[in-house]
Request: fold
Amino acid sequence: MTTSSSRPAGPLAGIRILDMTRILAGPTCAQLLGDLGADVIKIERPGVGDDTRQWGPPFLKAADGGEMKESAYYLCVNRNKRSVTVDFSRPEGVALLKRLLKHCDVLAHNLKVGGLEKFGLGYADLKDEFPGLVYCAITGFGQTGPYKDRPGYDALAQAMGGVMSVTGAPDGEPVRVGVGISDIMCGMYASTAILAALRHRDRTGEGQMIDLGLLDTTVAWMSNEALNYFTSGNLPKRRGNQHANIVPYQVFPSADGYFYLAAGNDGQYARFCAFAGVPELATDPRYATNPKRLANRDELVARLEQVTPNKTTREWIEGLEQRNVPAAPVYNLEQTFADPQIRHREMKIEMDQPLAKDGKVALLGNPIKLSETPVSYRRPPPTLGQHTDEVLFELLDMDDAERARLREDGLI
Reply:
């Protein structure tokens, strides 16, 4: 699917975000808001830009056969943004950002605690001059507490937040989730918080500061495992692909690979056993109910693992679907993006990028489906400083001569 700027801007049209975020958490937030129609102005350092531009290979292939300076990592969270380069380490750069803020609703950043304050761009520095500003600060550990000055990274949040204690094989070492889930979830929480703060601003005219920490949002993401601990007092264990509260709910081997069985209730379990040719396991008092299956998990799983290799993955999926028993094949990404459901839902998109090979860039689609104000894909991830002249002219009416002077001075 190729998208274009002809689609409607979306429900956040008219909202403008000064995006001073980098890496993954903040850019995830800003891209989501951009997909929903916000005008996202990504502020980057002249000549350097977002660190992740160089987090490769792989890099986007250029039209001339070489490589562009945009890594796949950067591309994943930076569409629907305009890149403007400003050196805000200098007073003149701070003054320029404040001029831009007069036209913005939100300032988002993920510098460490005090990172913008030293330039006079902290919330306390701006709130009186911009009383309606929504100011979102994303850090590793939040703005308060004994760890607030520590640098924050996704893997550290996963380690301290408990994720790694429940991820991995029972007899193996703790394992981090294969993608930066702490960063991504923090970005998701940030987008929700910004929308709530904008709603409050629209009602009252008052802006506010949003304080988000990677560790906090990771702990919140522990969800049912945390409540299992609160309720029972027992520490959760690493169970590999198994579910903490449901059996059988895990990966099983097939004749030609693996499939995931998710028998979420006693009826589904009984129908699975019938199709598997072991109906006696459904009526056996040791396994007839989910609490009993939990108590006898290891014994039951061992018996099922002797049965599941008798059918291919396709036979399991098709047969269980006919019997309303949830199951799925275990895909690699090639299989994921070839799946007809994922293709139908447009989870892989293409956007025009004239500088890239074949003039296109492949990106992940947004999963939000809105009936009246759909998400839109208006701009591919920008090259460094691509929109500096455009934004400064559009918002500040800055003429060619002034922009040339600032560029010669290294400010933009």
